[in-house]
DNA sequence: AGACTTTTTGGAATCGATTCCAATCAGTCT
DNA sequence: AGACTGATTGGAATCGATTCCAAAAAGTCT
């Protein structure tokens, strides 16, 4: 028993395919009697319109694809949730796929937008060069969240990473730290902006940032430990470390603690993202909270305008406000 | 400038649509000259076959959808990676969507299989009742991973949760614990199995499990803390707690430590999953490692057979072997 | 050269749902 | 009753890629 088609339904209901389709799409131009016959036939045959046929005819899929290097980032998954909830209100389904930082796989997934498998695309952490992102966003329905290119041609939602790093670094200084260090991620654009903010805050206070350790590969708990170990070999020791993510900060705290030093007594540590890790750490991490859920929602509004509106190509960047969350890792 | 179609390509290349399609699909029955003209036209028009038209005609999409309550579980994201890598080798694209435990949204996503938006489905943590999962797997290309129903009609890949819980509980007993407690998740099938294993190990040692705290909502760090707090009100105190996940175990350790007791000195704690949290915790967690990546790979093989093979409906369950990872939270 | 393969090609039919247009039906008004 | 309006309906055309079939082109052999 193959799949039932609109033809089958029409035959069983004793009406034409046009009428069936009208019932399916809630057209008012159908008599109550016909509607009843059709819904009966649909139920009886367990009929469901075939997506590909419908998509072909309507020229849209009501599906949106999100791409991220990996799915474990709490900020990304929260932003995706915000996006998905907003999208659902407009009838869109949101799906996400990890690229693993593999350019080829990313290309393949981006092609799903080009070939009409989906109506729109969200980029959380693109692997392709910035120029490619710009070109893509220029001609197709694409929106960036978290990691956004520095261009007015595309559209992106994020926080002001530079300012956030500036704020948290200033907090370190205000709580008495003078020999500042940072563990950052040079591979991400956001990482470079945070480095700028860190530098600016140090400069403003007349301090020379003592050390900048930049990961050029993984940026996780173990990387945090490894880089913190390097910090501990220094003389004099830094008295504060700003880390580009909570997970890295947790590794950093762990390494410092294991070495017999105290956080924040000997070295204060700050993270970024306000993920669960920040609360799991001992002491709990001072960090930056991102309004991830809202970022997702805003991103959908923009993407929606882009997909439906004719001239509605929203450009530029939107920065939502972050929040400094002070906890025990920088202040007793 | 609208999208180019095969017709356009055919016209530009000076051949028929049939020839264009043959080139597109690598048919050998095309002369070198024609092939060249066609590829030239394709490049010139920047042509890409429209997915919906192709899917309609071919009656398959080469897309697979995975569903999970949320994307943050490290085991699920690792299993999905294994699945995705295996799927990619066969030309399939794997996408994932979170259901947030919302039955309606889950239904909507499952409908994507019913209406041919995707060729297959992986269920990681279904919200629908077991009977529905069985019925679904009975008639459609569905495979379960991690949380699998207790039925031979469907197909699922997991570890033997009951045995794993048994093993880790026995480890607690062997390291000297006598007053056993457990913090489990009654809402998940795996949680109930782990409870069984815990009970069985206690019974085998002639011990009455002192306490069973069962979360009936969230099962995260904060739930771990909350439930551990309850444990600490007991008299006598348990001397070991088996937790249904590392995250919960981390919360448990934290609460115990904050209360001035020592882990494992006063109370030993064991987790489950061997996620990053297990290593981030102080002391590091004894836990159960799941071969998540392989589980995903195996799941794809089965789903592939189901999707392509005519009679190839693979049934039953496959249990891959877990591993007890002993760390400081149970043994100095 | 003529008969016969083999290779290559064009073009129509097909997949299933939607939509437009014309036709039919029912109802209203004079 | 006849003319007219509006509500329903049937059915063909359409979306774009694939595939099958017959026809044309190019070789092969005696």
Describe the structure in your own words.
Two copies of one chain form a homodimer. With 332 residues, chain A is of the alpha/beta class. Helices cover 46% and strands 16% of the residues of chain A. The first copy, chain A, is built from 13 helices and twelve strands. In chain A, the strands form three sheets. A six-stranded parallel β-sheet of chain A has the order 2-1-3-4-5-11, sandwiched between helices. The first copy, chain A, has a four-stranded parallel β-sheet with strand order 7-6-8-9, with helices on both faces. A two-stranded antiparallel ribbon of chain A has the order 10-12. In chain A, α1 packs across α3 (32-45) and α10 (221-232) packs across α11. The longest helix of chain A has 17 residues, at 292-308. The N and C termini of chain A lie far apart (71 Å). At the A-B interface, α4, α5, β2, α6 and α11 of A face α4, α5, β2, α6 and α11 of B. Chain A binds a DNA duplex (30 and 30 nucleotides) through α1, α2 and α4.
